[in-house]
Amino acid sequence: MILSDKRILEEIEKGTIVISPYDRKYLGTNSYDVHLGKYLATYKDRILDARAHNEIEHFEIPEEGYVLQPGTLYLGVTLEYTETHAHVPFLEGKSSTGRLGIDIHATAGKGDVGFCNTWTLEISCAQPVRVYAGMPIGQLIYFVVEGEVETFYNKKGNAKYNGRTIKPVESMMWKNQF
Ligand SMILES: Nc1ccn([C@H]2C[C@H](O)[C@@H](COP(=O)(O)OP(=O)(O)OP(=O)(O)O)O2)c(=O)n1
Fold this sequence. Notes:
The protein is built from 2 helices and 11 strands, in the order αβββββββαββββ. The protein is mainly beta. The chain has a single domain (5-45, 54-147, 164-170), classed as Deoxyuridine 5'-Triphosphate Nucleotidohydrolase, Chain A (Distorted Sandwich). The strands form 4 sheets. A 4-stranded antiparallel beta sheet has the order 1-6-9-8. The longest helix is centred in the N-terminal third of the chain and has 10 residues, at 5-14. The chain is globular and about 45 Å long. Residues 91, 105, 108, 110-112, 115, 119-120, 122, 153, 159-161 line the site of 2'-deoxycytidine-5'-triphosphate. GO terms for molecular function: dCTP deaminase activity.
């Protein structure tokens, strides 16, 4: 089950869903629109190593926008800091971003109950496209979770992406030690 606009509002009032900054006008029928934060990042090395800590370089999107190029993975970040304490949040693209050939996540759209942070976006594009800080980039939808949660993401000792970051965060796969 996906939360409706009214249920999302109730959860916001209860504090079980936090979206900051929040504006009522971005609440859709059953989703909330999130926006592109001003920082992007790319990996320093062209060849990534799934066992290594691959470092990234951050840069700011200038006022006139930034042209994304196909063949490069960009890490972006939502402007919105979110907390979801009782539901499973999912990050989805928007039809309008999809129609520009922009993907905002590479395979990972699901969040965890207890996730408290901005969302890192794994951005790629089909053809060169200029993007702007603050543009609508995706939407959050909220699923009801069945059963009790034993370990909330923000209480998990080894959660990799919890915290409060205003810049995109690189892959922490290296912490899996496989
Ligand atoms: N595009 C995405 C998808 C998810 N997340 C956040 C919300 C999730 O609650 C958190 C962890 O996502 P996963 O469980 O998919 O990631 P891992 O399994 O790699 O990390 P962990 O071991 O910390 O669970 O990252 C994000 O910022 N950007």
